[in-house]
Specification:
Elements: H1 3-15, E1 29-32, H2 45-53, E2 58-65, E3 71-73, H3 85-88, H4 106-109, H5 143-157, E4 162-167, H6 170-175, H7 180-190, E5 201-204, H8 207-215, E6 222-227, H9 236-239, E7 245-248, E8 254-258, E9 261-264, H10 267-273, E10 277-278, H11 294-304, E11 309-312, H12 315-324
């Protein structure tokens, strides 16, 4: 981290209230999606420190293994849409022209510069009004480094912000001969995350792997089954046999709009009947689709649909929304 980044982070931490927050909606949680990724490049330490200062309940970590089995905090198994890997290691791409995290050692990965997400074919930034692509000096980091940042800030501020890691593509890792799940669980245990009381939520899209975590690997962590496809919304009873919550795409909750009011699918109520929490993804103030304003999106899903929490690139906006309620 450069001196300017540390200075800005210091200002943010000084400006925030170190006491634990109280809202009128303390049963609902805010999850900083890839950190404060609406403001700084996703999954950088700077984005995580900024998110921390915004007082979410949890900060998310997506995890992919390096060549030397270090869990790296990055959203995809690829490097070429958030780093300058194509410039630094042009000969290290695979036959599909993609650069894979797992083909680089941790030390090699730390030589790369992280930037705002872009299309590797066109170079065009995905969210044009976010942090300018190619600016700054952001780096990749390990899961252990991020845990130590969050636990260190919990110690120095008196807060108790949790972690919300996701095991990315376990089938890919297995095909590569790697045991990402066992490695992640061991690190979590080493840092004191073993049970549902330990302020850690573990998530995965791979239902078979999440079930294995509960039943074969005997984890007592709070588990959230991420869901992407429509047919998965019909499998809640099975998910409830091993998971504590679901993380659906928020559009799976919306049915249709009648006048000014939204009608909803039965996904949230069905999940609640089974004792499952519902944490949909992703609330983005700069990508509203069905909604006219971010306020409308928050009101519709957090209040009217009665979800239990939200993944958001803009954690400050939802924290402030809760304070107003």
């Amino acid at each position: 981290m450069n001196s300017i980044s540390l200075f800005l982070i210091g200002l943010l931490l000084i400006s925030c209230n170190p006491s634990k927050k109280n809202t009128n909606m303390n049963s609902k949680i805010v999850i900083a999606h890839r950190g404060a990724s609406g403001y700084l490049p996703e999954h950088t330490m700077e984005a995580k420190a900024m998110a921390y200062a915004m007082n979410p309940h949890f900060i998310e970590q997506d995890l992919v293994l390096s060549k030397d089995n270090v869990p790296i905090v990055i959203h995809d198994i690829y490097l070429d849409d958030v780093t300058n890997v194509a410039l630094m290691f042009p000969d290290r791409k695979r036959k599909d022209n993609r650069f894979y995290v797992i083909d680089f050692t941790f030390n090699e990965l730390q030589t790369l510069k992280v930037t705002e997400r872009f299309n590797p074919e066109t170079g065009k930034q995905f969210y044009p009004n976010r942090y300018p692509k190619g600016k700054g000096n952001f780096k990749l980091h390990s899961f252990k480094e991020e845990i130590e940042l969050i636990q260190g800030l919990n110690k120095s501020t008196g807060k108790n912000i949790g972690i919300y890691p996701e095991i990315k593509d376990p089938a890919f890792h297995k095909k590569e001969g790697r045991k990402i799940t066992e490695i992640v669980l061991e690190i979590l245990a080493d840092y004191g995350y073993k049970t549902k009381k330990d302020n850690c939520v573990l998530q995965c899209f791979d239902a078979a792997e999440l079930e294995r975590i509960r039943k074969e690997l005997k984890s007592d962590l709070f588990l959230v089954q991420l869901i992407e496809f429509e047919e998965e919304t019909k499998q809640l009873a099975h998910f409830a046999s091993y998971a504590d919550g679901i993380g659906p795409w928020y559009k799976q909750i919306l049915d249709k709009k009648v006048g000014e009011k939204w009608q909803f699918t039965t996904l949230v109520s069905d999940a609640h009947k089974l004792g499952l929490k519902v944490h949909p993804y992703t609330f983005r103030a700069d990508s509203l689709d069905e909604f006219t304003t971010f306020e409308e999106m928050m009101e519709t899903l957090l209040i009217e649909a009665d979800i239990d929490g939200a993944f958001t690139d803009f954690p400050d906006l939802i924290v402030n929304f809760f304070k107003r309620k």
